[in-house]
Amino acid sequence: MPTPDPARRNERSRRAILDATRALLDETGYAELTVGAIAARAGAGKQTIYRWWGGKSAVVLDALFDTVATGDVALPDTGDLRADLRLVVRATVAEFADPRLSATTRALTVETLSDETMAGEVRDRLLRPQLDAVKDRLRAGGVPADVDLDVAVELIFGPIYHRWLLRTGPLTEDYADRLVDLVMAAIGDRASG
Amino acid sequence: MPTPDPARRNERSRRAILDATRALLDETGYAELTVGAIAARAGAGKQTIYRWWGGKSAVVLDALFDTVATGDVALPDTGDLRADLRLVVRATVAEFADPRLSATTRALTVETLSDETMAGEVRDRLLRPQLDAVKDRLRAGGVPADVDLDVAVELIFGPIYHRWLLRTGPLTEDYADRLVDLVMAAIGDRASG
Amino acid sequence: MPTPDPARRNERSRRAILDATRALLDETGYAELTVGAIAARAGAGKQTIYRWWGGKSAVVLDALFDTVATGDVALPDTGDLRADLRLVVRATVAEFADPRLSATTRALTVETLSDETMAGEVRDRLLRPQLDAVKDRLRAGGVPADVDLDVAVELIFGPIYHRWLLRTGPLTEDYADRLVDLVMAAIGDRASG
Amino acid sequence: MPTPDPARRNERSRRAILDATRALLDETGYAELTVGAIAARAGAGKQTIYRWWGGKSAVVLDALFDTVATGDVALPDTGDLRADLRLVVRATVAEFADPRLSATTRALTVETLSDETMAGEVRDRLLRPQLDAVKDRLRAGGVPADVDLDVAVELIFGPIYHRWLLRTGPLTEDYADRLVDLVMAAIGDRASG
DNA sequence: AGATAATCGAGACGGTACGTCGCGTCTTTTC
DNA sequence: GAAAAGACGCGACGTACCGTCTCGATTATCT
Predict the structure, then answer these.
(1) Which nucleotide is closest, CA of D50 to its C1'?
(2) pLDDT by residue (tens digit) across D58-107?
(3) At residue B73, does pLDDT exceed 90?
(4) Where in chain A is CATH 1.10.357.10?
(5) Nucleotide nearest to C44 (CA to C1')
(6) Is D103 touching C (CB cutoff 8 A)?
(7) Contact C44, C92 (CB under 8 A)
(8) Which CATH number fits domain D6-62: 1.10.10.60, 3.30.390.10, 2.140.10.30, 1.20.1050.10?
(9) Where would I find the H helices in C29-80?
(10) Is the Transcription keyword given for this protein (chains A, B, C, D) (predicted)?
(11) What is the pTM of this model?
C-alpha cells in the first residue's frame, strides 16, 4: 500500500516541517536547502517528508502557500480605477523587486517550468486568486464589454513578470505607474469606476 | 591552474560538446542533463568542459546561442502598424505554443532564473535584438511621444510569457489578435504607420 | 510499558506469525527477512511481534523450534557400534547436503552466531539431545574410560559442520564412512558394543 | 561502463580504507561498523568503497586477509608429530577463545553462511593455507597411507569450530590436548615423525 | 450483561544506514 | 600542453527497516 492515509497524518509534524522549511529558506536560501536539513530542523524523519510531499520543491511550495494563504486578496474599490490599479501594481512590483522574496519565487518558477503539475498548483492556489481579484475590479470598473478581461489582467501582470524574469529594466514605482497608464489606455480610460 | 590558452583549443571538441548538449537537451530535458553525459556523448573528457566553460549552464547557454544566433530580426514595415504587429505576435505565440521550440526557451529561462550573469547574456544577446526591432517599428509607426517605448514593448511580450509560463490560458492566434488590439489601444491607435 | 499478560495472548496471532516466519524464511532467506514482512504476511501488527518476542531473531528461533521440536532422538543399539554410528553420521551428512534442510540449519546457525543467549537456547533445546544420544551410545559401546566422551562426540559432528560451513569438500556417504572409521580408531576400535 | 579499471586504482585509498576498517573494528566491533564510517575515517568517498568492494563484509574480509597475509604458516617439524600438533591446536583454540577476534570471525561466518562467493574466499585465502600446512605435516609424519588426509585435517579443526560456534564447551588448553590425543589415536599413533 | 481494560491490526512516526548519482578536481596516458 | 578517460572526495538523494507510538476495533475477563 504505497498510498498513506491522510486521516492518520500527524499535524504536529506537518507544521514543524513547514515552519522549518520557511526558517531555512530565510537563513540559507532555496539552493542550499536540503530535504535532510528540513527534516533535522523539524525533528522529523526524511521519510515523513517524502511520504506527504514529492520532494523539496513541493514542500517549499506548500510552505509558501501556508504563508500567503492568510489575508484578503480583494482589491479596494475607491471608485477610481486608475488609483486602485496603481496600488496593486506598485505592490506587485515592489514584491518582485525584493531580492529575498525574489530568490524563492525564482526557484519555484524553475520547478514550474519543468513540472506541469507544479505549474498548475502555482497557478491555481497562488496566482489565480490575485488575478481574479483584479479581474473583478476591472469588471466593476466599467470596462467596455468587448475587452477580454483575462487578456486584460495579463496585460498588467505579464510585463512585470517579463521584466523581473529577464531583467530588462528596473522595477520601480515609476515603472508601475507608466504601466498602469498604458493599461488604462488599452482598456479604454473613459472608464471611471 | 594556469589559464588555458585559447589558441590551442581544439575546435573539434568544442563543436562535439555543443552538439552533444543540444542533442541531450532535446532527448532528456535540462534538469536531467549532466556534465558527465555531455562529455560521454561528445567523446570528450569532463575536464575539457570545465576548462572552457563554467559548468552545465554555461555550456547549455552557449549551445543555444549557437543554434539561435542566425537570421534577421528586423520587422516589416507595410505602413500598417496593427498588421505588422499581428504578424510578429502571432509568430511569437505560435513559437511558445510549439512544444518543440518551447523546450529550448524553457531551458534558457531556467538559466536566466538561476544565474544573474546568464540572465544578462540571454537578455543582451538573444532578447534585446528582437525587442529593439519591435521598438523601432513602434517608433516608426508614430506612437505618441509620451509613450515609454520600453514599457510598450514589454506590454506585448510580457503577457505571452506570462501565459506560457503559468499556463493561464491557450496560446492561439485569436489570443494573439486580441492582445494586439489591446496593445494598439494602449499606445493610441490613431497611429497609422 | 506494563509487562503484557500472557493469559490474554491471542493464540491465533502467535500461530500466524510463526507460520508466516517459516514461509518467508523458505522463500527469501534469513537476511532478507524483515519484521514488517512477517507482520504483513501474518496479518498481524508489528507491535504484536515486539510485544511477545525480542525481535526478528527471537521469532525465527521460535519458529524453527516449532518445526523441529518433534521426534525421538535415541540411537539404535544393534550391538555393532560402527554400524550404528554409520547410520547416524550418514543421516547427518545427508541432512547437511540437502539444500532444503540446510537452509533451516543455516538460519539457526546465523542466530547462534549473532546472539549469546540464542546460542544457549539452540545448544540446549536442539543440539544437546542429539549429542547426548550419541554420547549415550558411545558409553554403552564400551569406549575406554580415559576417552572424554564430550570431545569424542564433537569429533564426529565437528568435521561435518566444518565441511558444510566452509565447503571444503563433498558431503557424501563415502565421506561419512571414512569419518566413522577415523572416529572408531580414535576411540579405540577394539570397542565392540 | 560499470567495470572500473584496476590499473587506475588509487593504492593510497585502498590502504586507508583497509586501515580504517581494522581500526574501527577494534574500536566499535563489526555490528556497529558502517560503510559511511569507514569512508569518513579513511578520508575516502563511500563510492570508492562500493567501486572496489561489494559492501561492508567484503571490506572487512579484505582487511582481515591483509592482516593475516603476512607470516609463515608452515608447521614446525620437530620430529614429534604429537608435540607439533599440540602447538598448532593450542594456538587455534586460543585464537577462537579470544572474544575480540571472535566477534569479527563470527560476523564473517554469518556472511559466509549466506554468500557462496564469500565462503569460497574465506576457504581459499584464509583457511586453506593453514589446512594444507597441517596436511603436509601429517604426510611428513608418516600417517598410514589408507588415512584420507583431508578428512584427518578436518578431524582436528572441525571440533574446534563446532565448540566455538555452538558453545558446547570451554576452549581451553586442556581441551586442545585431549583433542590432539584423540586425533593421534585416529590416525594411528605409531606414527612418529 | 455491561463495564473495563488489555490485546489486536494497521501503519505513521523519528531515526540510521543504505547504495546511487552527480559535482568539480585530480591523475594518468596519448596525441 | 591540451585532450580522453575515468577514479576520486564529497554530499544529497530517495529507500528500507528498525523499534516506538497512536488509533479505533475486538476480545476477554471481572464486577
Answers:
(1) E19
(2) 999 999 888 776 556 678 899 999 999 999 999 999 989 988 777 778 77
(3) no
(4) 72-187
(5) E9
(6) no
(7) no
(8) 1.10.10.60
(9) 35-42, 46-52, 56-68
(10) yes
(11) 0.84
